[in-house]
Amino acid sequence: MHRNAPVSVRLAILAGLVLSTVFASTVTAQSRRSRQQTPATPQTQPGQAPVAQPFDDLEPSPFIKRTKPKRWTLETMVFIGTTEWTDVVDGQAIPANDVWEFNAATLVFPVLSETASSILEVRGRGDEVVPAVSGRVEFDDRPMTDEVTIVKQGIGGGLLPAATWRAQWQVEPPARGAYAPREMELHVKTSIVSHEIEFDEKNARAVDWPKGEWPPEAAATFEPQMLVDFDAQGRRYDMSKVVKLLQLWTNNKDPKSIKPVMLAKFLAGQVAEYVQPSGEGLAFDKSGMLEGFAPVGPTAAVLEGQGTEIDLPILLVAMYRAAGLPARIVIGYDEQGSGKSVYLKQSGGDGEIRVWVEFALYDEDNKTFGWVPVDVTALRSASSKMPPNFLDRPVKFFGTHDELDRVAPIAFHFHPPTTVRSYGSPALWGWFVTPTPPGRADQRISFSMTSSPNGGRDQSRLPDDKK
Fold first, then answer.
1. Rounded CA gap, 249 and 170, in Å?
2. How many Cβ atoms are within 10 Å of 24's Cβ, its own excluded?
Protein backbone atom coordinates (compact mmCIF):
# COMPACT_ATOMS: atom_id res chain seq x y z
CA MET A 1 0.00 0.00 0.00
CA HIS A 2 1.42 3.42 -0.90
CA ARG A 3 2.25 5.50 2.17
CA ASN A 4 0.99 8.68 0.50
CA ALA A 5 -2.46 7.29 -0.21
CA PRO A 6 -5.23 9.29 1.49
CA VAL A 7 -5.73 8.22 5.10
CA SER A 8 -9.34 7.16 4.54
CA VAL A 9 -8.38 5.01 1.55
CA ARG A 10 -5.42 3.48 3.35
CA LEU A 11 -7.49 2.57 6.40
CA ALA A 12 -10.35 1.21 4.36
CA ILE A 13 -7.95 -1.13 2.59
CA LEU A 14 -6.37 -2.18 5.88
CA ALA A 15 -9.76 -2.80 7.43
CA GLY A 16 -10.90 -4.81 4.43
CA LEU A 17 -7.79 -6.99 4.32
CA VAL A 18 -7.41 -7.62 8.02
CA LEU A 19 -10.79 -7.26 9.64
CA SER A 20 -12.54 -9.49 7.15
CA THR A 21 -10.39 -12.31 8.48
CA VAL A 22 -10.65 -11.36 12.15
CA PHE A 23 -14.37 -10.78 12.41
CA ALA A 24 -15.33 -13.59 10.06
CA SER A 25 -13.70 -16.01 12.48
CA THR A 26 -16.06 -14.93 15.23
CA VAL A 27 -19.08 -17.21 15.47
CA THR A 28 -21.40 -14.84 17.27
CA ALA A 29 -20.84 -11.19 18.08
CA GLN A 30 -21.17 -10.39 21.73
CA SER A 31 -23.81 -7.88 22.71
CA ARG A 32 -22.56 -4.50 23.88
CA ARG A 33 -22.17 -4.30 27.61
CA SER A 34 -22.97 -1.08 29.34
CA ARG A 35 -20.08 0.49 31.20
CA GLN A 36 -20.16 2.93 34.08
CA GLN A 37 -18.37 6.16 33.23
CA THR A 38 -15.42 7.04 35.45
CA PRO A 39 -16.36 10.58 36.57
CA ALA A 40 -12.88 12.11 36.32
CA THR A 41 -12.09 10.78 32.85
CA PRO A 42 -11.80 13.68 30.36
CA GLN A 43 -13.04 11.68 27.38
CA THR A 44 -16.00 9.35 26.96
CA GLN A 45 -14.85 6.08 25.47
CA PRO A 46 -11.59 5.32 27.34
CA GLY A 47 -13.22 6.07 30.69
CA GLN A 48 -16.06 3.60 30.37
CA ALA A 49 -15.06 1.17 33.10
CA PRO A 50 -17.05 -0.46 35.88
CA VAL A 51 -16.45 0.29 39.51
CA ALA A 52 -13.95 -2.25 40.76
CA GLN A 53 -14.76 -4.75 43.53
CA PRO A 54 -12.46 -7.03 45.58
CA PHE A 55 -10.98 -9.99 43.71
CA ASP A 56 -9.10 -11.72 46.50
CA ASP A 57 -9.10 -15.20 44.97
CA LEU A 58 -7.42 -14.44 41.64
CA GLU A 59 -4.44 -16.57 40.61
CA PRO A 60 -1.65 -15.48 38.23
CA SER A 61 -2.48 -16.05 34.59
CA PRO A 62 -1.09 -19.41 33.37
CA PHE A 63 -0.49 -17.92 29.92
CA ILE A 64 2.21 -15.44 31.01
CA LYS A 65 5.50 -16.88 32.22
CA ARG A 66 8.49 -15.01 33.59
CA THR A 67 11.85 -16.61 32.81
CA LYS A 68 15.59 -15.89 33.21
CA PRO A 69 15.45 -13.43 36.11
CA LYS A 70 18.09 -10.73 36.42
CA ARG A 71 18.57 -8.43 39.39
CA TRP A 72 19.23 -4.77 38.78
CA THR A 73 19.82 -1.63 40.77
CA LEU A 74 18.46 1.44 39.02
CA GLU A 75 19.68 4.87 40.10
CA THR A 76 17.84 7.98 38.99
CA MET A 77 18.95 11.56 39.51
CA VAL A 78 16.58 14.50 39.06
CA PHE A 79 18.18 17.94 38.98
CA ILE A 80 16.54 21.36 38.85
CA GLY A 81 18.31 24.68 39.07
CA THR A 82 17.43 28.35 39.04
CA THR A 83 17.08 29.75 35.55
CA GLU A 84 19.93 31.94 34.33
CA TRP A 85 19.10 35.12 32.48
CA THR A 86 20.76 38.40 31.51
CA ASP A 87 19.98 41.70 33.19
CA VAL A 88 20.99 45.01 31.67
CA VAL A 89 22.32 47.66 34.09
CA ASP A 90 23.63 50.96 32.75
CA GLY A 91 23.97 49.39 29.34
CA GLN A 92 25.96 46.47 30.70
CA ALA A 93 24.76 42.85 30.34
CA ILE A 94 24.99 41.16 33.74
CA PRO A 95 24.29 37.43 34.25
CA ALA A 96 21.61 36.78 36.87
CA ASN A 97 19.59 33.92 38.33
CA ASP A 98 16.04 33.56 39.54
CA VAL A 99 15.62 33.54 43.32
CA TRP A 100 13.72 30.68 44.95
CA GLU A 101 12.19 30.98 48.38
CA PHE A 102 9.91 28.47 50.06
CA ASN A 103 9.18 26.91 53.45
CA ALA A 104 8.65 23.17 52.79
CA ALA A 105 8.51 20.64 49.97
CA THR A 106 7.28 17.13 49.23
CA LEU A 107 9.03 15.31 46.38
CA VAL A 108 7.38 12.43 44.52
CA PHE A 109 8.81 9.68 42.34
CA PRO A 110 7.07 6.54 40.99
CA VAL A 111 7.55 3.03 42.34
CA LEU A 112 6.29 -0.07 40.52
CA SER A 113 5.65 -3.05 42.75
CA GLU A 114 5.21 -5.35 39.77
CA THR A 115 4.81 -5.40 35.99
CA ALA A 116 4.41 -8.28 33.56
CA SER A 117 8.20 -8.59 33.43
CA SER A 118 9.45 -7.23 36.76
CA ILE A 119 9.09 -7.47 40.51
CA LEU A 120 10.24 -4.94 43.08
CA GLU A 121 12.64 -6.42 45.61
CA VAL A 122 12.21 -6.08 49.36
CA ARG A 123 14.67 -5.82 52.25
CA GLY A 124 14.49 -6.84 55.87
CA ARG A 125 12.99 -9.65 57.90
CA GLY A 126 9.69 -10.36 59.59
CA ASP A 127 7.68 -7.23 60.34
CA GLU A 128 10.57 -5.06 59.12
CA VAL A 129 10.19 -5.97 55.44
CA VAL A 130 10.14 -2.86 53.22
CA PRO A 131 10.36 -2.24 49.46
CA ALA A 132 13.94 -1.89 48.19
CA VAL A 133 13.62 1.84 47.49
CA SER A 134 15.88 4.51 48.93
CA GLY A 135 16.82 8.07 48.12
CA ARG A 136 17.76 11.50 49.33
CA VAL A 137 16.99 15.15 48.64
CA GLU A 138 19.74 17.76 48.43
CA PHE A 139 19.59 21.55 48.28
CA ASP A 140 22.83 23.07 46.93
CA ASP A 141 24.61 19.74 47.58
CA ARG A 142 23.46 19.77 51.22
CA PRO A 143 21.48 16.68 52.30
CA MET A 144 17.98 17.59 53.47
CA THR A 145 16.32 14.21 54.02
CA ASP A 146 16.72 10.54 53.19
CA GLU A 147 13.48 9.40 54.83
CA VAL A 148 11.21 7.88 52.20
CA THR A 149 7.53 6.98 52.51
CA ILE A 150 5.94 4.53 50.07
CA VAL A 151 2.34 5.43 49.25
CA LYS A 152 0.38 2.43 47.95
CA GLN A 153 -3.22 3.66 48.14
CA GLY A 154 -5.17 6.79 47.44
CA ILE A 155 -7.64 8.64 49.63
CA GLY A 156 -10.33 6.21 50.76
CA GLY A 157 -8.09 3.17 50.46
CA GLY A 158 -8.45 2.55 46.73
CA LEU A 159 -5.64 1.88 44.31
CA LEU A 160 -3.70 4.77 42.81
CA PRO A 161 -4.16 5.26 39.04
CA ALA A 162 -2.87 2.24 37.07
CA ALA A 163 -2.10 0.64 40.46
CA THR A 164 1.16 2.57 40.71
CA TRP A 165 2.93 3.30 43.99
CA ARG A 166 4.85 6.45 44.74
CA ALA A 167 7.83 7.30 46.92
CA GLN A 168 7.70 10.58 48.84
CA TRP A 169 10.36 12.65 50.59
CA GLN A 170 9.22 15.39 52.96
CA VAL A 171 11.45 18.42 53.51
CA GLU A 172 10.22 20.02 56.71
CA PRO A 173 10.30 23.80 57.31
CA PRO A 174 13.64 25.18 58.55
CA ALA A 175 14.06 26.27 62.15
CA ARG A 176 14.03 29.88 61.01
CA GLY A 177 13.58 31.79 57.78
CA ALA A 178 12.99 30.00 54.49
CA TYR A 179 14.86 27.83 52.02
CA ALA A 180 16.51 29.72 49.17
CA PRO A 181 18.54 27.14 47.21
CA ARG A 182 19.78 27.57 43.68
CA GLU A 183 19.76 23.83 42.98
CA MET A 184 17.78 20.77 44.06
CA GLU A 185 18.70 17.13 43.46
CA LEU A 186 16.61 14.02 44.06
CA HIS A 187 18.53 10.74 44.08
CA VAL A 188 16.49 7.52 43.92
CA LYS A 189 17.76 3.93 44.08
CA THR A 190 15.51 0.94 43.35
CA SER A 191 16.26 -2.80 43.29
CA ILE A 192 14.30 -4.79 40.70
CA VAL A 193 14.15 -8.33 39.32
CA SER A 194 13.49 -8.28 35.56
CA HIS A 195 12.57 -11.24 33.36
CA GLU A 196 12.08 -12.39 29.83
CA ILE A 197 8.43 -13.17 29.02
CA GLU A 198 6.95 -16.24 27.36
CA PHE A 199 3.32 -15.85 26.29
CA ASP A 200 1.07 -18.80 25.48
CA GLU A 201 -0.89 -16.87 22.89
CA LYS A 202 -2.59 -19.92 21.40
CA ASN A 203 -4.38 -20.83 24.61
CA ALA A 204 -4.78 -17.25 25.81
CA ARG A 205 -6.92 -16.52 22.76
CA ALA A 206 -9.73 -18.56 24.36
CA VAL A 207 -10.10 -16.05 27.22
CA ASP A 208 -13.32 -14.08 26.73
CA TRP A 209 -14.41 -10.62 27.90
CA PRO A 210 -15.59 -10.63 31.51
CA LYS A 211 -19.34 -10.56 32.04
CA GLY A 212 -18.87 -8.68 35.30
CA GLU A 213 -16.39 -6.08 36.45
CA TRP A 214 -12.68 -5.86 35.82
CA PRO A 215 -10.35 -6.48 38.78
CA PRO A 216 -9.33 -3.27 40.60
CA GLU A 217 -5.81 -3.30 39.17
CA ALA A 218 -7.23 -3.34 35.65
CA ALA A 219 -10.02 -0.84 36.31
CA ALA A 220 -7.47 1.63 37.71
CA THR A 221 -5.92 2.04 34.25
CA PHE A 222 -8.95 3.96 32.95
CA GLU A 223 -7.99 7.02 34.98
CA PRO A 224 -6.82 9.94 32.77
CA GLN A 225 -3.12 10.61 32.51
CA MET A 226 -0.76 13.21 31.11
CA LEU A 227 0.39 12.73 27.50
CA VAL A 228 -2.26 10.07 26.91
CA ASP A 229 -5.47 12.01 27.68
CA PHE A 230 -4.14 15.55 28.06
CA ASP A 231 -0.95 17.47 27.31
CA ALA A 232 1.67 18.84 29.70
CA GLN A 233 -0.34 22.05 30.11
CA GLY A 234 -3.47 20.13 31.11
CA ARG A 235 -5.30 20.65 27.80
CA ARG A 236 -7.41 17.66 26.86
CA TYR A 237 -6.69 15.87 23.62
CA ASP A 238 -9.56 15.39 21.19
CA MET A 239 -9.98 11.70 21.86
CA SER A 240 -12.90 11.51 19.44
CA LYS A 241 -10.24 11.21 16.72
CA VAL A 242 -8.94 8.05 18.38
CA VAL A 243 -12.45 6.65 18.70
CA LYS A 244 -13.24 7.39 15.03
CA LEU A 245 -10.05 5.67 13.90
CA LEU A 246 -10.93 2.67 16.05
CA GLN A 247 -14.37 2.55 14.46
CA LEU A 248 -12.84 2.77 11.00
CA TRP A 249 -10.38 -0.04 11.73
CA THR A 250 -13.17 -2.24 13.11
CA ASN A 251 -15.66 -1.41 10.32
CA ASN A 252 -17.95 0.10 12.99
CA LYS A 253 -18.28 -3.30 14.64
CA ASP A 254 -18.24 -3.79 18.38
CA PRO A 255 -14.57 -4.38 19.33
CA LYS A 256 -15.78 -6.91 21.86
CA SER A 257 -17.08 -9.11 19.07
CA ILE A 258 -13.60 -10.63 19.07
CA LYS A 259 -11.82 -11.87 22.16
CA PRO A 260 -9.33 -9.64 24.01
CA VAL A 261 -6.05 -11.23 22.88
CA MET A 262 -6.97 -11.22 19.19
CA LEU A 263 -8.30 -7.65 19.44
CA ALA A 264 -5.13 -6.51 21.22
CA LYS A 265 -2.93 -8.07 18.56
CA PHE A 266 -4.97 -6.66 15.68
CA LEU A 267 -4.82 -3.12 17.10
CA ALA A 268 -1.08 -3.44 17.79
CA GLY A 269 -0.51 -4.32 14.14
CA GLN A 270 -2.70 -1.44 12.97
CA VAL A 271 -0.87 1.12 15.10
CA ALA A 272 2.54 -0.25 14.09
CA GLU A 273 1.65 0.17 10.41
CA TYR A 274 -0.21 3.47 10.73
CA VAL A 275 2.24 5.65 12.67
CA GLN A 276 5.44 6.63 10.89
CA PRO A 277 7.94 7.20 13.74
CA SER A 278 10.30 10.15 13.62
CA GLY A 279 12.41 11.06 16.63
CA GLU A 280 12.58 9.60 20.11
CA GLY A 281 9.91 11.72 21.78
CA LEU A 282 12.41 13.09 24.29
CA ALA A 283 13.25 16.72 25.13
CA PHE A 284 16.78 17.89 25.92
CA ASP A 285 18.14 20.97 27.61
CA LYS A 286 20.63 23.34 26.01
CA SER A 287 23.57 21.18 27.15
CA GLY A 288 22.11 18.02 25.59
CA MET A 289 20.91 16.47 28.85
CA LEU A 290 17.51 14.78 29.06
CA GLU A 291 14.80 17.19 30.24
CA GLY A 292 11.77 14.93 29.85
CA PHE A 293 9.22 13.50 27.42
CA ALA A 294 7.90 15.31 24.35
CA PRO A 295 5.57 13.17 22.18
CA VAL A 296 3.16 14.78 19.73
CA GLY A 297 0.16 13.14 21.43
CA PRO A 298 -2.49 10.69 20.20
CA THR A 299 -4.64 13.24 18.36
CA ALA A 300 -1.74 14.51 16.24
CA ALA A 301 -0.54 10.95 15.61
CA VAL A 302 -4.00 10.04 14.29
CA LEU A 303 -4.39 13.15 12.14
CA GLU A 304 -0.88 13.11 10.69
CA GLY A 305 -0.15 9.38 10.62
CA GLN A 306 3.20 10.07 12.20
CA GLY A 307 4.75 10.77 15.58
CA THR A 308 7.72 9.96 17.76
CA GLU A 309 8.75 6.50 18.93
CA ILE A 310 6.88 7.16 22.18
CA ASP A 311 3.69 8.04 20.30
CA LEU A 312 3.22 4.45 19.13
CA PRO A 313 2.64 3.05 22.65
CA ILE A 314 0.68 6.18 23.60
CA LEU A 315 -1.72 5.70 20.69
CA LEU A 316 -1.94 1.97 21.32
CA VAL A 317 -2.88 2.38 24.99
CA ALA A 318 -5.46 4.99 23.97
CA MET A 319 -6.88 2.53 21.41
CA TYR A 320 -7.06 -0.31 23.93
CA ARG A 321 -8.87 1.86 26.44
CA ALA A 322 -11.23 3.20 23.79
CA ALA A 323 -12.12 -0.41 22.98
CA GLY A 324 -12.80 -1.10 26.67
CA LEU A 325 -9.61 -3.10 27.24
CA PRO A 326 -7.67 -2.05 30.37
CA ALA A 327 -4.11 -1.09 29.45
CA ARG A 328 -1.23 0.92 30.82
CA ILE A 329 1.96 2.58 29.62
CA VAL A 330 5.23 1.19 31.00
CA ILE A 331 8.32 3.40 30.95
CA GLY A 332 11.64 1.69 31.57
CA TYR A 333 15.38 1.99 31.23
CA ASP A 334 17.12 -0.47 28.88
CA GLU A 335 20.72 -0.99 29.89
CA GLN A 336 21.59 -2.48 26.49
CA GLY A 337 19.90 0.14 24.36
CA SER A 338 21.49 1.75 21.34
CA GLY A 339 22.91 4.64 23.33
CA LYS A 340 21.66 7.09 20.71
CA SER A 341 20.43 9.64 23.25
CA VAL A 342 22.78 12.60 23.59
CA TYR A 343 22.71 12.71 27.37
CA LEU A 344 23.62 9.04 27.58
CA LYS A 345 26.54 9.43 25.20
CA GLN A 346 27.85 12.28 27.32
CA SER A 347 27.81 10.10 30.41
CA GLY A 348 29.42 7.17 28.58
CA GLY A 349 26.36 4.94 28.92
CA ASP A 350 24.82 2.61 26.40
CA GLY A 351 21.26 2.56 27.76
CA GLU A 352 18.11 4.30 26.67
CA ILE A 353 14.52 4.97 27.62
CA ARG A 354 12.07 2.31 26.45
CA VAL A 355 8.26 2.61 26.46
CA TRP A 356 5.75 -0.16 25.85
CA VAL A 357 2.18 -1.18 26.72
CA GLU A 358 0.62 -3.86 28.93
CA PHE A 359 -3.00 -4.95 28.55
CA ALA A 360 -5.02 -6.85 31.13
CA LEU A 361 -5.81 -10.54 30.60
CA TYR A 362 -8.58 -11.54 33.00
CA ASP A 363 -10.04 -15.04 32.82
CA GLU A 364 -13.25 -14.58 34.75
CA ASP A 365 -14.27 -18.24 34.55
CA ASN A 366 -10.98 -19.61 35.87
CA LYS A 367 -10.24 -16.64 38.16
CA THR A 368 -6.81 -15.78 36.78
CA PHE A 369 -5.32 -12.40 35.98
CA GLY A 370 -2.16 -11.01 34.41
CA TRP A 371 -0.63 -8.37 32.16
CA VAL A 372 0.53 -8.97 28.60
CA PRO A 373 3.39 -6.77 27.30
CA VAL A 374 3.12 -5.30 23.80
CA ASP A 375 6.21 -3.50 22.50
CA VAL A 376 4.62 -1.79 19.51
CA THR A 377 7.70 0.37 18.85
CA ALA A 378 9.82 -2.78 18.53
CA LEU A 379 7.17 -4.31 16.26
CA ARG A 380 7.43 -1.26 14.02
CA SER A 381 11.25 -1.30 14.12
CA ALA A 382 11.23 -4.92 12.95
CA SER A 383 9.01 -4.09 9.97
CA SER A 384 6.78 -1.26 8.80
CA LYS A 385 4.40 -3.88 7.42
CA MET A 386 3.04 -6.74 9.50
CA PRO A 387 3.41 -10.15 7.80
CA PRO A 388 0.30 -11.65 6.15
CA ASN A 389 -0.02 -14.30 8.86
CA PHE A 390 0.61 -11.81 11.70
CA LEU A 391 -2.68 -12.65 13.44
CA ASP A 392 -2.32 -16.40 13.05
CA ARG A 393 1.04 -17.09 14.69
CA PRO A 394 3.04 -15.98 17.74
CA VAL A 395 5.05 -12.83 17.09
CA LYS A 396 8.00 -11.51 19.07
CA PHE A 397 7.17 -8.35 21.04
CA PHE A 398 3.48 -9.26 21.33
CA GLY A 399 3.45 -11.02 24.69
CA THR A 400 6.65 -13.01 24.21
CA HIS A 401 9.62 -10.71 24.77
CA ASP A 402 13.24 -11.80 25.22
CA GLU A 403 14.64 -8.32 25.90
CA LEU A 404 12.70 -7.23 28.99
CA ASP A 405 15.13 -9.00 31.33
CA ARG A 406 17.57 -6.17 30.64
CA VAL A 407 14.99 -3.41 31.21
CA ALA A 408 14.12 -1.85 34.57
CA PRO A 409 10.52 -0.56 34.56
CA ILE A 410 10.26 2.85 36.23
CA ALA A 411 6.74 4.24 35.86
CA PHE A 412 3.22 3.83 34.48
CA HIS A 413 2.92 7.61 33.98
CA PHE A 414 5.05 10.26 32.32
CA HIS A 415 4.11 12.60 35.19
CA PRO A 416 2.92 11.51 38.66
CA PRO A 417 -0.89 11.28 38.82
CA THR A 418 -1.16 13.79 41.64
CA THR A 419 -0.93 17.55 42.17
CA VAL A 420 2.81 18.09 41.81
CA ARG A 421 4.93 20.36 39.61
CA SER A 422 7.86 19.72 37.29
CA TYR A 423 9.50 21.94 34.67
CA GLY A 424 9.81 22.12 30.90
CA SER A 425 8.65 18.59 30.09
CA PRO A 426 7.10 15.76 32.11
CA ALA A 427 9.96 13.74 33.62
CA LEU A 428 8.44 11.10 35.96
CA TRP A 429 8.90 13.18 39.12
CA GLY A 430 7.23 16.20 40.71
CA TRP A 431 7.15 18.27 43.87
CA PHE A 432 4.62 20.11 46.00
CA VAL A 433 6.05 23.29 47.50
CA THR A 434 4.64 25.68 50.09
CA PRO A 435 3.69 28.41 49.92
CA THR A 436 4.25 28.28 46.14
CA PRO A 437 6.70 26.39 43.89
CA PRO A 438 9.28 28.21 41.77
CA GLY A 439 7.63 29.45 38.60
CA ARG A 440 10.40 28.13 36.39
CA ALA A 441 13.55 26.04 36.61
CA ASP A 442 16.08 24.24 34.47
CA GLN A 443 15.42 20.51 34.71
CA ARG A 444 17.21 17.32 33.76
CA ILE A 445 16.98 13.64 34.65
CA SER A 446 19.51 10.83 34.23
CA PHE A 447 19.71 7.10 34.88
CA SER A 448 22.29 4.42 35.54
CA MET A 449 21.77 0.71 36.01
CA THR A 450 24.00 -2.00 37.43
CA SER A 451 23.65 -5.72 37.95
CA SER A 452 22.80 -6.57 41.57
CA PRO A 453 23.94 -9.51 43.69
CA ASN A 454 21.29 -11.97 44.80
CA GLY A 455 20.78 -10.30 48.16
CA GLY A 456 17.14 -9.26 48.02
CA ARG A 457 13.80 -10.97 47.75
CA ASP A 458 11.13 -10.33 45.21
CA GLN A 459 7.57 -9.58 46.28
CA SER A 460 6.07 -12.66 44.64
CA ARG A 461 7.52 -14.65 47.54
CA LEU A 462 5.85 -12.58 50.25
CA PRO A 463 2.38 -12.80 51.79
CA ASP A 464 0.00 -10.10 50.57
CA ASP A 465 0.16 -8.08 53.78
CA LYS A 466 3.91 -7.66 53.35
CA LYS A 467 3.82 -6.48 49.75
1. 48
2. 8
User: What is the residue-wise DSSP string for 138-161?
Assistant: EETTEEEE--EEEE-B-TTSPBPG
Domain count, the chain: 2
State which residues form the domain around 240: 20-66+194-410
Q: What's the CA dihedral at 108, 112, 295, 337 to 10 degrees? A: 120
User: In sequence order, what DSSP letters do the residues of 73-118 get, joined into one string?
Assistant: EEEEEEEEEPPEEEEEETTEEEEEE----BSEEEEEEEE-SB-SSE
| Helices assigned H by DSSP within 127-221 | 201-204, 216-219
**Each residue's pLDDT tens digit, 247-269:** 999 999 999 999 999 999 999 99
CA nearest to 437, candidates 210, 103, 46, 35: 103
Point out the domain boundary residue: 384, 410, 436. 410
The Cα-based distances of 394 to 4, 165, 238 in angstroms read: 30, 33, 34
Please tell me whether residue 244 adopts helix, strand or coil conformation: helix
Judgement on whether residues 273 and 251 belong to the same structural domain of the protein? yes
Of 413, 329, 428, which is closest to residue 107 (Cα–Cα)?
A: 428
Same domain, 242 and 352: yes
Give pLDDT tens digits for 128-160: 778 999 999 999 999 999 999 999 999 888 999
Which value, in Å, is the radius of gyration of the alpha carbons in the chain? 23
